[in-house]
Input
Amino acid sequence: MEKLAEKEFGRSISKDELGIYEPREHFDNPNRYKLVSKKPLEDSFIYIESQLFKAASSGNTSVGRMYFGNALHVVQDFFSHSNYVQIISQLRRGLKSSKKIKVGVFGNEDKVVSIMEFVIGFVKENINYSQFALTELGKYKAWMNRHIGTNFEITSDDYYMLDPRHQPANKSWFKALDVLQPLLEKARLKAKQATKKTTHSEIHQDDPARPHFVVAHKLAIYVTRELAYLMKGVWNSKIPLPRLMKLVRFRLRKPVHKGWWRAVVR
Output
């Protein structure tokens, strides 16, 4: 975690800053964890509202912004840790959805899946894909043929040399992918077999490789901007805090066919 923090923030983080895992802070199904209320979703709402209240009480200070950031983190997780975007996908295709909003259980096996998805994402980021180079080569040869009268063609050698798998710098990364991908699928299967409930690994959209990642990302950004605007009003005593809390509840409920989300994901 220290290495990741140094890469992301330019410094290490303390144990107090890192804290401990609590399902309510991530819209996760608590499973064996003790609930404050009788419903997993409600526990997260109670936590969000407690952090917003502390943010409002602390004012527009570093402490107030910290509490507000805590609340925003949970709000953002709602779209990537629940089946909200899957329901939207059905509504966009003209289908009715009888599904209720649900969140996944985050067990030990899901921790393994999350770490492996992160590692695979890191490996993919380091692969030099050359489709752009191949396209540019084709344009160059076409220009030469048209203007100078040459007869260049894109040969099989061109494809071979520009295929990312055949570039020396990429070979070790692709070997890593060949090993990691099957392990990831095994880890996902183990997570699913560990409980009869829906798992975090099945439902989450944290990984850019997941099918609904972009939609979840857009919705989270939209609501974050809305809440940030209202929070400034709360700090300036122009907007009452209950209005902000009411918007959180309104945005984080089951999507309807002609809902607000359509303007965001169209």
Observations:
- The CA atoms of residues 98 and 163 lie 46 Å apart.
- The chain has 13 helices and no strands.
- The two ends are 37 Å apart (CA to CA).
